[in-house]
Write a structure and sequence with these properties.
This protein is mainly β and 481 residues long. Helices cover 4% and strands 53% of the residues. It has 1 helix and 52 strands. The strands form 15 sheets. Strands 22, 26, 29, 30 and 31 form a 5-stranded mixed beta sheet that branches. Strands 43, 47, 50, 51 and 52 form a 5-stranded mixed beta sheet that branches. It has a 4-stranded mixed beta sheet with strand order 2-10-9-6, with no helix packed on it. The longest helix has 18 residues. The chain starts with a helix and ends with a strand.
Length: 481
């Protein structure tokens, strides 16, 4: 074969390869981080407690991004309060038992923001609800402890306080993590619930009254086949107060072939007819409510949300609301038939459990329609181009031994887009190193190349593009092989 022919074939293959590649337009100059705002502003907490701080990055394109997990957090005085920098603890302040103030700072790429955190002893404690609601034995109420500090700031101390009941035969209050302050009525009487923290206590009364009767509402609703009806159970107590018992009552339907009912009081119409709905709690059973299931027909359908827009690669859940001949309305999403006018733009599910869920396929617009009983309702779904959602820096961790003679490491930035595709953004991002252990290049031709300064330590390497900042990769420099 002649050299000229070989060259033509190579050119043809190169052009074909370029045409087959899906190339994203990344010509827009990347936004840069201009400032960091730490919130809440100048908080105060009691010694030995915790509070969560948030770092918001403000970029040159005016975007505001939560960068709490990607900044480096520091406390000017760890003896007063320390702050987390590990996964799951970023920005979480833990106060010691020492009072005073410390400056909490969030830093990324040489940009910092800070707030002043003050530790102050508890001056007083209030416990709510006060006055308390009267509840039936066997039910529960949540108490909350609010501490007022010596500097007049207030803090929710519910999860830090020690909880006690004056009479455990009347009420039991939880002091276990995850349920502190949750109080169960044991018998019909009164007692006192107390919360204590930092040597200061607060109390609220507790009252329990015997359940006299139980009422179910609505008394005689009528719904169309295939739809639902929420019932409520209201307890009438001996002290003439009312208590919602819907979530704790035992529900029953006399004819489950007509309608079933869940433990939360939600009835589902199965077929035409009537059934009796009852609610019971302890030894009390309600008077019956009658649920009628009718063959009512739909007169109109509304599809929501109206004319939504999503990015390529995302989904949109649609809801169909049917209006019936008795002027009632019902969510008929699960019984309607769904259609997309252009399945090349977006498809929509008719599978039970995901009905009305549209999945984008390409950019453009399509009409989404829900149909039932000879009626239809529709809206327009617009699918916009893909967007960058996150940046991954590789390698995630790298160690350089100074004695090895290696002084450089090339980092790579991989962009993850809304359509689940990825792209190498190494030459487009802005690179930053958190410390002077290593410098990282933003010069064309060497972008992402980290060069050590022979200082021993670690540096967080991050990449930023279009208002998105990666989680940090860690570069470790050590002289120990």
């Amino acid at each position: 074969m002649k050299k000229g022919s070989s060259f033509v074939i190579l050119i043809f293959l190169f052009i074909t390869l370029l045409a087959a590649c899906k190339v994203k337009d990344i010509s827009t100059p990347p936004a840069t981080l201009t400032s960091i705002v730490v919130t809440p502003t100048d908080p105060s907490i009691a010694p030995g407690t915790t509070t969560q701080l948030t770092a918001t990055g403000i970029y040159s394109n005016n975007n505001r991004v939560n960068i709490t997990s990607s900044v480096t957090w520091t406390s000017s005085d760890p003896g007063i309060a320390d702050i987390g920098n590990t996964a799951g603890t970023h920005g979480l302040v833990t106060a010691t038992t020492t009072t005073g103030s410390t400056i909490i700072t969030a830093t990324s790429g040489g940009i910092s923001g800070s707030t002043t955190l003050t530790m102050s002893h508890v001056a007083s404690m209030s416990v709510t609800p006060s006055p308390p609601p009267s509840i039936a034995p066997g039910t529960m109420v949540q108490y909350v402890a609010i501490g007022t500090l010596l500097n007049s700031a207030q803090q929710n101390l519910t999860t830090f306080a020690t909880w006690t009941s004056e009479n455990s035969g009347v009420a039991l209050v939880s002091d276990a993590a995850g349920s502190k302050g949750l109080t169960s009525a044991v018998s019909a009487a009164t007692t006192t619930i107390t919360a204590t923290y930092d040597g200061v206590s607060g109390s609220a009364a507790f009252k329990s009254s015997t359940l006299s009767s139980l009422a179910v509402t609505p008394i005689a609703p009528s719904i169309a086949k295939g739809t639902t009806q929420q019932f409520t159970a209201t307890g009438h107590l001996a002290d003439l107060t009312l208590q919602s018992l819907t979530s704790v009552a035992t529900w029953s339907s006399s004819t489950i072939g007509i309608a079933t009912i869940s433990n939360a009081g939600l009835a589902t119409a199965v077929s035409e007819g009537t059934t009796t709905i009852l609610a019971s709690f302890t030894s009390i059973t309600s008077l019956p409510a009658t649920l009628g299931v009718t063959p009512e027909v739909i007169t109109a359908i509304t599809v929501t949300p109206v004319n939504p827009s999503i990015v390529l690669g995302k989904t949109q859940q649609f809801i169909a609301i049917g209006t019936f001949s008795d002027v009632s309305t019902q969510d008929i999403s699960s019984s309607a038939t769904w259609n997309s006018s252009d399945i090349n733009i977006a498809t929509i599910s008719n599978i039970l459990g995901s009905k009305g869920l549209a999945t984008s396929v390409n950019t453009g617009s399509t009409t989404i329609t829900a149909s039932s009983g000879g009626f239809s309702g529709s809206t327009t779904l617009t699918v916009t181009p893909v967007v960058l959602e996150s940046i991954e820096v590789r390698p995630a961790t790298f160690t350089i031994f100074t004695s090895s003679g290696i002084v450089n490491e090339q980092f790579t930035a991989i962009g993850h887009f809304s359509d689940n595709s990825t792209q190498d953004l190494t030459t487009s991002v802005i690179w930053s190193s958190s410390t002077n252990v290593a410098n990282i290049s933003n010069t064309p031709g060497s972008k992402g190349l980290a060069t050590i300064t022979f200082a021993i330590g670690t540096a967080d390497i991050t990449a930023t593009f279009s208002g998105i900042t990666s989680n940090p990769a860690t570069l470790i420099v050590t002289n120990l092989l």
